[in-house]
Amino acid sequence: MNPTRRDFLKLTTIGGAAAAVFGFDLKPAYAQLRALKIARASETRSTCPYCAVGCGTIIYTIGDRAKNVTAQVVHVEGDPDHPTNRGTLCPKGASLQQEIMNDRRLLKPLVRRPGGTDWEDISWDQALAEIAAKVKKTRDDTFVEKDAAGRTVNRLESVAWIGGCTDTNEFNYLVVKSMRALGVVHLENQARV
Amino acid sequence: MTKTQTGGAEYSARIQRAERLSAAHPFASEFLNFYKHVASFQKTLRANLTASSVSKSARAFADGTRDSLDLTVLLPHYRGFLSVIEQHAPHALREAARQTSLLGSDSWIASLNSYWEFAGKFDQEVGAFAQFLSRGFLQPYAEHLAADKAAPPVVSAPRICPICSARPLLGVLRPEGDGGKRFLLCSFCSREWEFRRIYCSTCGEEAEEKLPVYVAEQFPHVRVEACETCKFYLLTIDLTKDGNAVPLVDDLAAIPLTLWAHEHGYSRLQPNLLGT
């Protein structure tokens, strides 16, 4: 009655084969198999973008990776393996899915002109050009080359920079280099993780 | 002596869960009804082992390795186990148990010793019937030895049991914060150890896009955690979705998912007791 070792090795490559060898009836299970509705999810590790704690998260995305299917974020939960939060999230972090899947999320730059009451669409090129012009004008107008005692300081006190907790090391390196080149002294990041 | 010390509570939970799932899932009722009889025998055997104070100080699982098997207490119960299988198993397994019971105790000792050496490591090489009979009988003993043994400190993510060095049977997600922390359940001594998420327990793959998780609407708390690199999968019972689940039993009830995984080219590293 015992199958040979070779038979058994072949059989174990087929699900439930050993059970069939034992004499169990697999027909009902196969019938149920045809009725299964299976969804494929991907789990992705990420970091909560909100505060300076920098909690680890796991983002669940549903989608079979077919090219004509847009993956949907269906759930975000705390990463149980993350040493900072060990699976927990605050109420704000726990609502991350609603930030990602939100029809009110901004997908393009907007501008509200001085004295204006409404936001207007603006292209990325125009937005960057206007920001650069304002930074240059502010710097030209307010740059402090020497302090009251006549010492050379080369600083720009009228511009400040604040970064967020999802900024990477590489991004922050570039921020410090470019801000210091302008003379910015008010340079801060909400996260020190 | 409390039920916890004899393992009685664990076995009672398994039997009750098998009864409940058998009613809810007719397609798995043959498996679960048979399993109830096996678990009832295991419950009695475990209680006997505790009552006879089989020494746990034996170096049976010292440093994750196995010493020789002490059959003095176990062997008198083997005929009883075989008769349970003869009474309740499907025909082929029943016949295997009947033929085994005709063999002498020398043959039993040889087969039990042989399985003890490879249990949970090379089960596929043992043969389906020899594996079932030895595994079903020795498992309460392995659980008894492992019950009070302190697990060594976890310094990495071990892919085999830190107590008895068998392969994992299942993953278990237990509530941690607002999420689920993953543990692996040993296929032999039933101990659990921590294992990080999004990390293949077979090959160590950690690229997120290669580790899909499949969940069926009909079994929301059972996950097929597959790996596209090694093509193995780990069935994981999510206790954050169903706190009443008993992983060993819910695995048996989820046989359609096992069949589905195999149809889609994924293999299981270690089959469960009933070979699914």
Provide a descriptive summary of the structure in words.
- The complex is a heterodimer of chains A (193) and B (276).
- With 193 residues, chain A is of the alpha+beta class.
- Chain A is built from 7 helices and 8 strands, in the order H-H-H-E-E-E-H-H-E-E-H-E-E-H-E.
- In chain A, strand 4 and strand 5 form a beta hairpin.
- About 4% of the residues of chain A have low confidence.
- With 276 residues, chain B is an alpha/beta fold.
- Chain B is built from 9 helices and 7 strands, in the order H-H-H-H-H-H-H-E-E-E-E-E-E-H-H-E.
- In chain B, strand 5 and strand 6 form a beta hairpin.
- The chains are: A alpha+beta (193), B alpha/beta (276).
- Chains A and B meet through helix 1, helix 2, helix 3 and strand 1 of A and helix 3, helix 5, helix 7, strand 2 and strand 4 of B.
Helix content of chain B: 40-55%
Strand order in the sheet with the most strands of chain A: 1-2-3
Q: Overall 3D geometry of chain B?
A: globular
Q: Give a short account of the largest sheet of chain A.
A: 3 strands, antiparallel
Output mean pLDDT of chain A.
Answer: 87
Head-to-tail CA distance between termini of chain A:
63 Å
Radius of gyration of CA atoms of chain A, rounded to a whole number = 29 Å
Question: Would you spell out the secondary-structure blueprint of this structure?
Answer:
The complex is a heterodimer of chains A (193) and B (276).
Chain A: H1 5-11, H2 17-22, H3 27-35, E1 38-47, E2 56-62, E3 72-78, H4 91-94, H5 96-100, E4 110-111, E5 120-121, H6 124-142, E6 144-146, E7 152-163, H7 169-182, E8 184-189
Parallel strand pairs in A: 7-8
Antiparallel strand pairs in A: 1-2, 2-3, 4-5, 6-7
Chain B: H1 3-6, H2 8-24, H3 29-51, H4 78-88, H5 91-102, H6 105-118, H7 128-147, E1 168-176, E2 179-186, E3 192-194, E4 213-216, E5 219-226, E6 232-238, H8 247-253, H9 255-263, E7 267-268
Parallel strand pairs in B: 1-6, 6-7
Antiparallel strand pairs in B: 1-2, 2-3, 4-5, 5-6
